[in-house]
């Protein structure tokens, strides 16, 4: 993933499913991703994604039932917003000055869980 300049357009990846969750990783993500399902969560693994400092990755999850399980590098800041019955589990970044991932989680049931792991170094398209 590169930080978009003024003349670069941002790409949005849209995933739609009625029943069943979404599995997303660095090879399948753009700067913005929208995952929509009636029933089903989203498993997002960003440990292998190179997100430059100052860049921002946005993930939006819309569902009636289903949460978000997010795995990021230790230096990534995660900002969770939205409306859902379920909390947010995140211990915060363990290293300062990292990039930001913004998660919008909208639905009735389902929380957001953030886990931190080591990086594999792969770039987002």
Which labels suit this protein?
125 residues, mainly beta, five-stranded parallel β-sheet, 10 strands, globular, disordered C terminus
Compact overview of the structure:
The chain contains no helices and ten strands.
Give the low-confidence spans. 121-125
Structural class: mainly beta
Q: How many helix segments?
A: 0
Sheet with the most strands: spatial strand order: 1-3-5-9-7
Tally of DSSP β-strands:
10
Sheet bearing the most strands, described?
Answer: 5 strands, parallel
The H/E string reads: EEEEEEEEEE
Mean pLDDT: 80
Strand content: over 45%
How large, in whole angstroms, is the Cα Rg? 14 Å
Distance between the termini: 6 Å
Percent helix, as a range, is: under 10%
Q: What characteristic shape results from the CA principal axes?
A: globular
What does this structure look like?
The structure is a single chain. With 125 residues, this protein is an all-beta fold. Helices cover 0% and strands 46% of the residues. The strands form two sheets. Strands 1-3-5-9-7 form a five-stranded parallel β-sheet, with no helix packed on it. Strands 2-4-6-10-8 form a five-stranded parallel β-sheet, with no helix packed on it. The relative contact order is 0.25.
């Amino acid at each position: 993933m590169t930080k978009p300049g003024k003349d670069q357009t941002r790409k949005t990846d849209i995933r739609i499913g009625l029943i069943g969750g979404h599995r997303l990783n660095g090879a399948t993500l753009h700067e913005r991703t929208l995952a929509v399902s009636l029933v089903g969560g989203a498993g997002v693994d960003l440990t292998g994604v190179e997100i430059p400092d100052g860049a921002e990755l946005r993930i939006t999850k819309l569902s009636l039932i289903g949460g978000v399980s997010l795995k990021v590098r230790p230096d990534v800041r995660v900002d969770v917003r939205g409306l859902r019955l379920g909390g947010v589990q995140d211990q915060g970044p363990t290293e300062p000055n990292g990039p930001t991932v913004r998660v919008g989680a909208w639905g009735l049931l389902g929380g957001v869980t953030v886990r931190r792991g080591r990086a594999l170094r792969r770039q987002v398209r």
